[in-house]
Queue: 2 jobs
Job 1
Amino acid sequence: MSQVKRIVIAAVCAAIGIVLPMAFHSIPNAGSVWLPMHIPVMICGLVAGPAAGAATGLLAPVLSSLLTGMPAMPVLPPMACELVVYGLVSGALSQRVRTGSTSRDLYVSLVSAMVAGRVVRGVLSALIFSAGSYSLEAWLMTSFATCLTGIVLQLVVVVPIVVSLERAGLVPPRNPEE
Amino acid sequence: MRALSGYVWADSPLHRAPAAAKLAGLLVCVALVVAARGWALLAVCAGCAALAALSRVGWRRALQPVWAMRWFLVVILAMNALFGGGPALAGAGTPAAAAAQGDALSLGPVVLNASGAAQGATVVVRVAAVAVLGALLTATTRPQQLIDGVRVLLAPLGRVGLSVEPVALAVGVTVQFVPTLLRESRQIIWAQRIRCGDVSSRGILRRAVSYVRLLVPIFVSAFRRADELSVAMEARGYRLDDEPRARKGRHS
């Protein structure tokens, strides 16, 4: 995949990351429960690599905050860091993990990214963004309990979307012989 | 795009100020809000109020994000008042003992901690001030001006060898694609409605599931556009792999 295409995919995924939350916000409390902005970031990492994934992870929340006011400025720094890690880890692992099955590769990369992003957000919140007022209970509540629906949604939709994009010929297939 | 961004038409010094200066100012103000304590924080808040008045966007628009976060702020204040601070926590089991320490207010079985409440109020004021500053930026700056502002702020990175062009390209394409994707998403939603899809259902779960069903067509449609755009750019000689051709492509 050329550099130009990677950047355009990162930009388009960032645009989806702005549009999807706007659609989901007609549902009460949807942002923190359904995590609509996480989906395009992970998809971008899986199909276009770590740099493009990280770029989407940074652009989507920052531009969304500037253009639509969501997420609010105080929530932006930890969220941007978390999304950058999602894009970075999903992209780096999708390039390296080769189990012989596309779906298995993608799920390993996706789940690792989901765990890494949450751990990094928790560590940064405890040390920098909410130093002194952040606890393990708060991390478990915000990273897993509140957004359980969003986690299930990501596990259900991200890999099928990537496979659909490969089958539509819009991104290069990982295992051409499959 | 302007409606999306929440830009408010008005003629004020903030509207006329360059976007890069406003972005840099926002960063400085956020640092001040985070660093300030006590009376200094109140002075910073007075500065925010003065900026809101100066911007002529209306108090309603300036306070819109604070209103949107009202329950979040109430929870922060309540959690700090109930569980924050040291002295009242020690006597939490016995409200009378906690109240007797002078730092807590006993309301039946609930003990409110004065120092915790003060800490919570500080956090709430900081969050609200940063939210108002962000709202003032988006209300007084058009999206295209914001992109130009980001480009100007990133320009110094080019002098230390970092390539600014990919970042500028990504920001530009993202902002251009938002209205296009919004339009396409609406078309897909209408198409699903015609096929009896229940996007506007009153049931929250039903509505959410119907949105999830839209994800695959939205992504496939967006990636098709990305594919067409990148092919068109490369066909016109736009390359980022080698700098001379990129420059040539940009001006072609």
Note: Residues 102-129 of chain A form the longest helix (28 residues).
Job 2
Amino acid sequence: MSAVADRYAEFQALGVEVISVSVDSQFVHKVWNDTELSKMVDGGVPFHMASDGGGAIGTVYGVYSPAQGVDFRGRFLIDPDGIIQGMEILTPPVGRNVDETLRQLQAFQLVRKTGGKEVTPSGWTPGGKVLNPGPDLVANVWKFWNPKDVYGKK
Amino acid sequence: MAEEKVSCAVPASTVEGSSNEPAPAAEVKKEAVRMGVTVGMKAPDFTAPAYYKGKFTTVKLSDFAGKWVSLCFYPGDFTFV
């Protein structure tokens, strides 16, 4: 969570709020923030650290493990209408990539802004080539886009 | 006494008479109907106790309606990743 806290300003710049959730109590969240995270992030964690004791929230999101008694690493991107646009669930030993979360948020925001007239192909980053869905694009994506444009020649 | 292997998951406690063994095949169906969400669905609203900038407070997902939200679950405070 320290990585997200460290880059919170970038989330804010995109108008994105962050909520972190684990089964720990709010009291443990405080001690973790005060004794460890604040040493990695100036000013400490800037967003709500929610407590999901018992795993009720994790259960409805499908990320709670009754066997381990913890919420798995689930990350849900929720749009302004409250609809889940993206989700990723990892087991505990592998951490997330904040760059990828920010990239996906920017992509979803572009699609929303253009009302779906612009969609983002694989590996899109801000300023990158977008596609305009329509009859003319069918079987013609190759004319507009090539994976090597994004991923380079391997 | 052997030292517990340290990992990123919090070891679960066990209760006498219960079991953490994997579910037998006959129960696999249960897993398939477990609760969960997917993309395109309304995010279930919740209210939870929270720690926020030095204060104990309550956070409610629907209070952020009209904004994008990145909701991040993680296994536990003081875990390594």
Note: Chain A has two domains: 2-96, 114-151.
